[in-house]
Design a protein that fits this description.
Length: 283
């Protein structure tokens, strides 16, 4: 049987693979938490419709969730964590043993902020501001928590000529200028910039969107090889493996890398040739 006889079947299989598959659950969208605003322009309590419903923060920073209640009178404002329906605060009092949670309520204001400081990744989720009216009114606020990630420029393995300078650049890109102190480690040991070895220094540059830490180690020797880690206080660490090699070792590494590249090209060429031969046979 020729390839022409297989063409309709192949097209049918291709269309079947490309046809969009409905999402599990019948394609219905996940229902969002409902907001019970209350009734404006009355004497009963209601929420200010300018209140933000989404808050974003970073691990290790403070989150402030807003709740603006108008016509509160003598009613109570409570904050509930929707994940486990745990009552966190009632009025200005905290009802959790986790001292990271508290309410900030400026005097003579209609603002009741739930503050979480410092935030962990597990704190992400929906929190409800509730007012003890009859019926009760509630305002859900979604807290999104980001984890900052450090990155060291260049490959995961670096080969440094003995006697030259090790230069490593670690960047943390974020919408916040506070990533905390940035610490460098070699293996499990924190680098000491004042050690008797000398020649170890760091340059720090901070902007509103990026923090950069540059590590310099002059006169690199065999004692300087190892796994170097950049660890910001409020971001995930990044690591790179540093090898210190002599001239002969450096040439050997370069030769091995070239041989690997040539081998990869040879495999690619043979694969293309085999594909062309198969196409000729199908005709």
């Amino acid at each position: 049987m020729t390839l022409r006889h297989h063409t309709p079947t192949c097209l049918a299989l291709l269309l079947l693979l490309l046809w969009p598959t409905p999402a599990p659950g019948g394609g219905s969208e996940e229902s969002e938490p409902k907001i019970t605003w209350g009734r404006p322009n009355t004497n009963t309590a209601y929420f200010d419709d300018n209140t933000a419903a989404n808050v974003s923060t970073i691990v290790g920073h403070k989150a402030s969730l807003p709740c603006h209640v108008i016509n509160l009178d003598k009613k109570d404002v409570s904050w509930i964590r929707q994940r486990d329906l745990h009552i966190l605060t009632v009025g200005i009092f905290t009802y959790t043993s986790d001292d990271r949670f508290k309410v900030y309520h400026p005097e003579e204001s209609n603002k009741w902020y739930l503050e979480i400081n410092p935030v962990t990744f597990r704190d992400a989720g929906i929190y409800e501001c509730q007012v003890s009216t009859s019926p009760k009114i509630s305002l859900p606020v979604l807290l999104a928590v980001e984890v900052q990630q450090a990155q060291i420029e260049g490959p995961a393995e670096v080969f440094i000529q003995k006697g030259s300078t090790i230069r490593l650049t670690c960047r943390v890109n974020t919408h916040s200028d506070n990533v905390g102190a940035v610490t460098w480690f070699r293996d499990a040991h924190r680098l000491d910039y004042d050690s008797p070895r000398g020649g170890v220094s760091v340059e720090i540059e901070k902007t509103p969107t990026k923090t950069t830490s540059k590590l310099f180690i002059t006169r690199a020797g065999k004692a300087d090889l190892g796994n170097y880690t950049c660890l910001p206080q409020f971001a995930d660490a990044a690591s790179v493996q540093v090898h210190v090699v002599n001239g002969e070792e450096s040439a050997a590494v370069h030769k091995a890398g070239s041989a690997t590249a040539h081998s990869d090209v040879r495999v690619l060429c043979w694969s293309v040739l085999l594909l062309l031969l198969l196409c000729q046979a199908w005709r």
